[in-house]
Amino acid sequence: KARAGAVQADATQFKAETCRCLAELTDRFGQLAVQQLQVETTLKEHEEEVDRRLGQLRSHMGDEVQGLKTSLEGLNASLDQKCGTAKQEAICHLETLIKSSADMLNKLDQHCDELRHQIRDSGARTE
Q: DSSP assignment, residue 21?
C-alpha cells in the first residue's frame, strides 16, 4: 500500500508537472502566435509603405520624364526655328554671293570684250 501510495503520489506529481509544462507551452505558443501576428502586421505595413512610396516615385519620375520631354520638344522647336532662320539667312547670303559673282563675271566679260576691241583696234591701226 505504501508503494501504491508512492506511485500515486509520483503520478499526481507527474500529472501536475505535465499540466504545468502544458500550460507553459500553451502560454509560450500563445506569445509566439501574438509575436507572429505582430511581425506579419509589421511586414504588411512595411509592404504597404514601400508600395505607397514606389507609387509616389513612379508618379514623380513620370512627371519628371514628361517635363523633360516637354522641354526637349520646346528645344527642338526652338532649334528648328533657329536652324530654319540660319538656313534661310545662308540661302539669302548664297543668293547674294551668286548674284555678285554673276555681276562680276558679266563685268569681267565686258572688260574682256573692251580689251579685245582695243587690241583689234590697235592692231588695225598698226597695219
A: H
